[in-house]
Amino acid sequence: MQYRKGPLTYAAQLQQLQLRGLHVADPVRASYYLERVGYYRLMGYLFPFRRPGSDDYEAGATFEEAVARYEFDQVLRSLIMEAICNIEVAVRTAATYPAFGVASPVFANWIHAISAIRNIAAHHGRMWNRVLGIIPMRPNSGPWQHMAGTYPVGRMYFALLAIKALLGSCAADVNDWRDRVSNHLRPLLASHDHRQSMGAPANWDQHALWR
Hints:
- The protein is about 55% helix and about 0% strand.
- It has nine helices and no strands.
- Helix 1 (about 10-20) packs across helix 2, helix 3 (about 40-45) crosses helix 4 (about 65-95) and helix 4 packs across helix 5 (about 105-120).
- It is mainly α.
- It has two domains: about 10-60, no CATH class; about 65-205, no CATH class.
- It has helices spanning about 10-20, 25-35, 40-45, 65-95, 105-120, 140-145, 155-165, 175-185, 190-200.
């Protein structure tokens, strides 16, 4: 005879998280988020707070911190989608690739990479600590080699540099977009751990390609 567990109620989901050591300051608000966002989507934001090799959470881990990361990601997704949509429109109407200021192999790779990022964003996937499946190429030119060892190509900070570079060839307000992204990232990236999660150096906003 097979026994199948039924789906947990929101109250049971919350209790399970608490039993695993997650602090929940406001159970009513937490239940609302579980209902609105979904348990498994929020788990992606809770996972970094788990003890290695365990379902239990590190001391001090809170439900509210996971929600803050989820809400942060919502805005970051919107900013990324805004830029990528502009780039894709420009690509469809461009006569030549060199107009975007990078070599053709790099350009083709970047378009592939940001298309994958767009699909992640469109499906409400995590952005801030994403390890990219399609890795953008690092050009050999000087600005792209500046501080190269401090920002890996497989993390979101490098992708943002590539997106900004492409956007700069097809949008008049690229600096406005950059400033909005910077203002959104700055509180989070004050933390060393969060910078590591995004692959950003300590002086990320002073990089020659971001300024």
